[in-house]
Design brief:
The chain has a single domain, classed as Rossmann fold, CATH 3.40.50. The protein contains six helices and seven strands; from the N terminus they run βαβαβαβαβαββα. It has helices at 15-23, 44-50, 67-75, 92-97, 121-129, 165-190, and strands at 4-9, 30-37, 55-57, 80-83, 102-106, 134-141, 151-158. A seven-stranded mixed β-sheet has the order 3-2-1-4-5-6-7, with helices on one face. The radius of gyration is 16 Å and the shape is globular. The N and C termini lie close together (9 Å). It binds 5-O-phosphono-beta-D-ribofuranosylamine (GRF).
Amino acid sequence: MTKKRISIFASGGGSNAERFFEFFQNDQDIEIVSLFTNNKSAGVIERAKRFNIPYHIYNRNYWQNGEVIIDLLKSQKVDYIVLAGFMLLIPDELVSAYPDKIFNIHPALLPKFGGKGMYGMNVHKAVKEAREATSGITIHYVNEHYDEGQIISQVSCPIELSDTVEEIAKKVLALEHKNYPKVIAEVVRKSI
Ligand code: GRF
């Protein structure tokens, strides 16, 4: 049986991406075949090098209609795409080329704290300001509307009123690392 092939898209430090590189290193059913980034100085590139994952850097222009990227994904026979801190909008053409095959993680419990401007520390700041008792992660499919694709899994953690924004971010990131590769493995394995 041929393995299912995943490409990771990331723009930043890439701690989640690294969890995927590690998690699927010796997997019988699934492999990580490439990394795409829009940011030539992203920390994730060093991580990909360490794991011998081929990487591709394409600036913003290439993400307008995604044509070059779609061709490359198809030539690599990529089955699924995992967004791990990818900061650009995925073009509609790419969403149509990979229907229900693109996953994202959002560092809060959607539909709360999602949508425009809700990324990175902005999310955790908003959670703190709203004096929420819980936050967490949402793993979801990507459709044409940001943060609105069907939810696959949510995991929550308690937030204390005394938690700083950084402490909230740390708790949520730990949940991401623990759950993101595991949940994607379950979804992909179901399709085999
Ligand atoms: C994570 O919080 C993820 O939810 C968000 O961006 C952050 C990426 O962190 N979308 P890293 O680059 O994986 O370390």
